[in-house]
């Protein structure tokens, strides 16, 4: 079960497993709040679509103008094509949420990657993704992959 930490915008520090941060919005910044539990459920549902290979069930989770910064594309079809490509190379690949943080209209998720080959004694690869949510759907994403490069055994 992932650890769920939440940061709020405002003057008070946020307490969770540790003090996360004190965040002060700028005067020109407009924040729309996404209910915490809905944001968490949304990213976990996205991971479920990936892990079960039910990629078409992800359509309703994304806005029509969804933008992926890592892929440089608009729309969910490019993302689903990337999912298909990676699972064709690593059919046993699964992502497991380790931490989820919610702040306003953004949700960050750190996930471990299982079911792929990694060099002996090295940590499994990890994903860190940040999503912006608009009207209850994923509207934009940023992400990085850390750890060893996967090997196809």
Q: How would you characterize this protein structure?
A:
The protein has a single domain (33-146), classed as Roll (Nuclear Transport Factor 2, Chain: A). It has a seven-stranded mixed β-sheet, covered by helices on one side. By secondary structure, it is α/β, with parallel strands linked by helices. The protein has helices at residues 36-51, 76-89; strands spanning 3-6, 62-68, 73-74, 94-103, 106-114, 126-134, 137-146. Residues 4-25 have low confidence and may be disordered. 20% of the residues lie in helices and 33% in strands. Strand 2 (62-68) and strand 3 (73-74) form a beta hairpin.
Short précis:
The protein is of the alpha/beta class. It has helices at residues 36-51, 76-89; strands at residues 3-6, 62-68, 73-74, 94-103, 106-114, 126-134, 137-146. Strands 1-4-5-6-7-2-3 form a seven-stranded mixed sheet, covered by helices on one side.
Q: Secondary-structure map with pairings?
A:
Layout: E1 3-6, H1 36-51, E2 62-68, E3 73-74, H2 76-89, E4 94-103, E5 106-114, E6 126-134, E7 137-146
Parallel strand pairs: 1-4, 2-7
Antiparallel strand pairs: 2-3, 4-5, 5-6, 6-7
């Amino acid at each position: 079960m992932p650890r769920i930490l939440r940061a709020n915008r405002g003057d008070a520090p946020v307490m969770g497993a540790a003090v996360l941060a004190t965040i002060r919005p700028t005067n020109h910044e407009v924040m729309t709040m996404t209910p915490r539990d809905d944001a968490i459920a949304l990213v976990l549902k996205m991971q479920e679509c990936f892990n079960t290979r039910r990629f078409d069930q992800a359509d309703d989770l994304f806005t029509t103008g969804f933008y992926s910064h890592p892929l440089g594309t608009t729309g969910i079809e490019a993302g689903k094509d990337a999912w298909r490509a990676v699972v064709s190379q690593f059919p046993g690949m699964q992502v497991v949420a380790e931490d989820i943080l919610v702040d306003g209209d953004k949700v960050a998720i750190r996930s471990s990657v299982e079911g792929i080959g990694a060099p002996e004694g090295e940590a499994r690869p990890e994903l860190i993704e940040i999503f912006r949510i608009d009207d209850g759907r994923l509207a934009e994403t940023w992400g990085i992959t850390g750890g060893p490069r996967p090997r196809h055994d």
